[in-house]
Amino acid sequence: MTLQSRFFALTYDRQMTKVEKAGLRAYREGLLAGAAGQVLEIGAGTGSNLRFYGPAVESLTLTEPEIPMLRRLQRKAGEQAPAATVLRAPAEDLPFEDDCFDVAVSTLVLCGVDDQPRALRELRRVLRPGGQLLFIEHVRATDSHLARSQDRMNGINRFVVGCDCNRPTLDSIGDAGFTVTRVEHTTMPKVPKFASPVIVGSARVPVPAAAPSLDTQLSGGNRS
Q1: Which helix (H) or strand (E) holds 102?
Q2: CATH fold group of domain 3-221
Q3: Does an H or E element contain 31, and which?
Q4: What are the residue boundaries of the structural domains of the chain, listed by start?
């Protein structure tokens, strides 16, 4: 536990107040309206999403790797979602069996994980076939001038808030084996311009094609 991580956890909600009020809260609410069944949220931070989970959520599991954030998450979950399970775990090494969740949620997390491809592979692993990934994430700007600005500022941004704002996260979601079903390219309000490009959307784990039944195979074989 570092002094920086403790300070970040202590001030996070205060730093995000204007951003949340200016539009991020509405993005969270709209996104999580689609959460149902067995739900996993990675990097749950201080619990900013908790108020937006509805009655269709049958169980909620929250993970957070940083101890100072985890302590705040546990307190807020105790108040707003007492039935939720809260665990300390990094997104790159989730302590769950394969195919055990219906929905996974990642909001402003994939920009900060140490190994984004591995984290996405883990999310795909723990989601059932047909399972859904809901995301709000920083991305590399499509405008080349702004993208260069992101590259220049990324080191400072990583040091101050632990975020690589210039990652090709949408491409990484597809590379991990997800099928993107909805995506909105937008901007986060009340933040520096280089950190403003975000995507809001959903992706699914493909459902394997059904193997032909024995009757079908025999029927096909009798045609010759």
Answers
A1: strand 101-107
A2: Rossmann fold (3.40.50)
A3: helix 25-32
A4: 3-221
